[in-house]
Write a structure and sequence with these properties.
This protein is an alpha+beta fold. It has three domains: 7-92, 2-Layer Sandwich (Phosphorylase Kinase, domain 1), CATH 3.30.200; 97-264, Transferase(Phosphotransferase), domain 1; 351-548. Helix content is 56%, strand content 10%. The chain has a six-stranded antiparallel β-sheet with strand order 1-2-3-4-6-5, with helices on one face. A three-stranded antiparallel β-sheet has the order 7-9-10. Strands 8-11 form a two-stranded antiparallel ribbon. A hairpin with a 3-residue loop joins strand 5 (77-82) and strand 6. The longest helix is centred in the C-terminal third of the chain and has 32 residues, at 517-548.
């Protein structure tokens, strides 16, 4: 056991114990560099038995599996420290309560709330299943789901998750929680449909308060609570079918039904059947081609609506492009693409593809709509916030310029208009510059005056969206100074003013706390590159001063 107050690896100060298992203890720790709290899992290498070795290897496999994942509903692993005796796994500290504690304290939960949680869980499982190879979680239950204070959820405990290998006829170890695990988890090969079964049982428990581990025979949710909707009962019954082929075959289909439970009720199906019969009779009697054309057009629109919603409910960006092809004038699919690329490690080519898609459909997009302008602003910001060190800052400005221009120059007002204007000024500043500086000291002073004014605007709000605006703007300004250091020195811009800007931006960035992974990713980029930026700026100023003094 590690003593309270111990500093691990010169960075993480142990504050208190917050949990323990058979071979691990979890502590709350403070990162002395970033002034941020983390959870630290201590795994002691006992070395006195094969079973201990298996458990240690399982916990390490969990850590290495999670380290390459990036999803807002999954905890991040940020560090693994092995000193030969003890392994420390540093991960997100998740504030909140597990859903099983909420069940114990408050009993069955409202349907609307459970559906909201289930949609988040469905999206997270879909992300796991989309990995190459797929990751099967295998232990979905209320105890492994944390509800954070702001209402979002996090899945915890990846101790028995495994990568799915089609050639395996059976899992090597029977693991899972009785009552939640599907039949095949005890006798055969698990696959993504196994997680869907466990999610169904988890929803059943949350809605009814009936713990499936108690051995009660399964009964539909409305037999426990008749007030629940028919739609949610049908969804859960399909999730927990004993035969995997009778369940939802993927989380995208399940998510769609969770978002439209009213569409699958028996009453709706009867109504649809009556409509279909009426439609067939009317078509048979109809002799006027115009009427037939109208009916066909309505049918096509209905199909398009369904296809559009299905694609939009997916977690696969390829489906968002399909949705755009159906309705290029609707902003939702573009926003989904931008959100996906913010939250995932993607290439500049992938980002450029999103930008090119927006430009290709520019005529269909209504730039008098504030939501469309907000999307253009977010796209411009994406070029910068996902900055690739192998691509020049100027190239990013060139790509982002037209998006900020569209957002800023529209006659329609939207919340981010002033910020878009400052970004547009930065882009124009960069794209009007040749390889030798064409900007004077007054040009730099004017630009930084506008930057300071924008900082005062973005400092007024404090929520997740505002934090993303702030961290992105701070990062772009730091990149601008780093890129322009030589030209700023040549124009006579004071070295120490430039360094003070960098230091102020660094501290402003580290004052931001956010639950969004992409905000924390940008903060990590700032922290890991800050010292290098300072070194580069000083080196550029030294070179210019040496040239000005006639040195070699």
């Amino acid at each position: 056991m590690t003593d309270i107050g111990t500093v691990i690896d010169g960075k993480y100060e142990i504050l208190k114990e917050i949990g323990r298992g058979g071979m691990s203890i979890v502590y709350l720790a403070m990162d002395k560099r970033l002034n941020k709290q983390w959870a630290v899992k201590e795994i002691r290498k006992r070395g006195n038995g094969k079973n201990d070795e298996v458990v240690v290897n399982s916990l390490l496999a969990e850590a290495n599996l999670m380290k390459r994942l990036d999803h807002p509903s999954l905890p991040r692993i940020v560090d693994i420290i092995d000193n030969g005796i003890t392994i420390y796994i540093v991960m997100d500290y998740i504030e909140g309560e597990s859903l099983d504690k909420i069940l114990n304290e408050y009993g069955a939960q409202p349907e609307e709330l459970v559906i909201g949680w289930a949609k988040q869980l469905c999206d997270a499982l879909s992300y796991l299943h989309s990995q190459k190879p797929s990751i099967i979680y295998r232990d979905m239950k209320p105890a492994n789901v944390m509800l954070k204070p702001e209402g979002n959820i996090k899945i915890i405990d990846f101790g028995i998750a495994r990568e799915y290998k089609e050639q395996n006829l059976a899992d090597t170890t029977v693991l899972g929680t009785k009552g939640y695990a599907p039949p095949e988890q005890y006798s055969g090969q698990t696959d993504p449909r196994s997680d869907i079964f466990a999610l169904g049982m988890t929803m059943h428990h949350l809605l009814t308060g009936v713990d499936p581990r108690n051995g009660e025979p399964y009964a539909p949710v409305r037999s426990w609570n008749p007030e629940l909707s028919e739609g949610i009962e049908i969804i859960i019954n399909r999730c927990v079918e004993p035969a995997a082929e009778n369940r939802y075959q993927n989380c995208a289909d399940l998510l769609y039904d969770l978002e439209h439970p009213e569409l699958i009720t028996k009453g709706y199906k009867k109504k649809q059947k009556r409509k279909l019969v009426s439609f067939i009779i009317s078509v048979c009697l109809c002799v006027v081609m115009a009427i037939s054309g109208i009916v066909l057009n309505i049918t096509a629109t209905h199909v398009n609506n369904q296809d559009y919603d299905t694609n939009l409910a997916s977690s696969d960006p390829a489906n968002y492009y399909s949705a755009i092809a159906i309705y290029p004038s609707k902003v939702d699919a573009y926003n989904k693409l931008i959100e996906y690329h913010k939250s995932h490690d993607v290439t500049k080519e992938q980002i450029t593809k999103v930008g090119n898609t927006i430009e290709a459909n520019a005529e269909a997009l209504d730039t008098s709509d504030p939501q469309v302008l907000d999307m253009y602003y977010d796209m411009g910001k994406l070029y910068f916030s996902d900055y690739d060190a192998n691509d020049s800052f100027k190239n990013r400005a060139v790509n982002a310029k037209e998006f900020f221009k569209t957002a800023y120059e529209s006659d329609t007002y939207f919340d981010k208009k002033e910020i878009a204007g400052c970004y547009y000024s930065i882009c124009k500043f960069m794209t009007n510059q040749s390889t030798t500086s064409e900007h004077s000291l007054s040009d730099y002073n004017e630009l930084f005056d506008e930057i300071e004014s924008t900082m005062s605007i973005i400092s007024e709000a404090d929520d997740n969206e505002a934090n993303y605006d702030k961290i992105s703007f701070y990062y772009v300004t730091m990149l601008l100074i780093n890129d322009q250091a030589e030209y700023m020195a040549g124009a006579g811009f004071d070295r120490y003013t430039a360094l003070e800007y960098m230091e102020d931006l660094y501290w402003k960035a580290n004052e931001i706390t956010s639950t969004l992974s992409f905000v924390n990713d940008i903060k990590d980029e700032i922290n890991s590159n800050y010292e290098n930026y300072i070194t580069i700026i000083n080196a550029k100023y030294n070179e210019v001063e040496k040239r000005q003094q006639g040195g070699n």
